[in-house]
Amino acid sequence: MTSPSAPTGPVFAAPHTAPPVGTLLSPPPATDRGRPLGTWALVLSVVATILAPAVSGFAAFRVARGAGPGLEATASSAFDWRVLSPVREWVLLGEVAFWSGTVVGILALGLGIAGIATRRGRGAGIAAVVLSVIGPVVFGGLVALALVAGLATASANTPI
């Protein structure tokens, strides 16, 4: 048994009606764009400020330790590049780390500025810009420290 008041075909919604006069329409809800720009900048700046100097510092230590006796024997007026021949792999690793750290640091700086300007990860963008700016100082200090440490250990191993 079916009730006579129930429709037998498909049921459609009522047609669209205009809002009552005098009501204000609210703007559409804002979409959440996320904050990946500043976060990506921060990750890249950490790589450029921490990882690249660490790899270059390790390579500089190995270069100074391997070429130490030859570096100490050269005169201060002319540098003989053949001294670095036994450690050319470490020199290449240090140079690759330097240039990749430079490229990644500049990219992080640009993304950080863009993240700050577009408000897409402003806090992370500010941190990325600061890390990208101090990255070369960290790089230079760590490589200089590794060179001195490598020369110090190379001098200790040379026979007297």
Task: Characterize the structure shown.
The chain is mainly α and 160 residues long. It contains three helices and no strands. Helix 1 (36-73) runs antiparallel to helix 2 and helix 1 runs parallel beside helix 3 (122-157). The longest helix is centred in the middle third of the chain and has 38 residues, at 36-73.
Overview features:
160 residues; mainly alpha; 3 helices; 65% helix
Nutshell version of this structure?
The protein has helices at residues 36-73, 88-117, 122-157.
- Helix-strand sequence: HHH
- The overall pLDDT average reads 84
Output the structural class: mainly alpha
- Shape call: rod-shaped
Helix run count: 3
Number of strands: 0
Q: Assess the beta-strand content as a share of residues.
A: under 5%
Topology summary:
Layout lengths: L35 H38 L14 H30 L4 H36 L3
